[in-house]
Design goal:
The chain has 4 helices and 3 strands, in the order ααβααββ. The chain is α+β, with helices and mostly antiparallel strands.
C-alpha cells in the first residue's frame, strides 16, 4: 500500500505551474545549476529556492552542493 502522505506531498509539489515548468526543463537536461535555471525561469531567487525545496521534499529532484553552486537533477526513481 502506498504512503498517502508522500503521494499528497508529490501532488502538492506538482500543483504549481512554475514547478511544472521547472520539471519540463529538467526533463530536457540531465543536470541544472541553479543560476542558469533561475535566469531561464525569471523567478526571484528566494522564490526559486522555495520551489526547488518543495520539489526536493517531494522526492522529485535531488540536490548536491558544490562550492557555492547547487546542482539539481531528477530523482531516477521519479522518471
Amino acid at each position: 500500500m502506498e504512503n498517502y502522505e508522500q503521494i499528497a506531498t508529490i501532488m502538492k509539489a506538482l500543483a504549481d505551474p512554475k514547478r511544472l515548468k521547472m520539471l519540463t526543463y529538467f526533463l530536457q537536461l540531465t543536470l541544472f545549476v541553479h543560476v542558469k535555471c533561475w535566469s531561464i525561469l525569471t523567478l526571484l531567487n528566494r522564490h526559486y529556492q522555495h520551489h526547488m525545496k518543495l520539489l526536493e521534499k517531494a522526492g522529485i529532484v535531488k540536490v548536491t552542493k558544490k562550492s557555492q553552486w547547487h546542482h539539481y537533477a531528477l530523482q531516477e526513481d521519479f522518471c
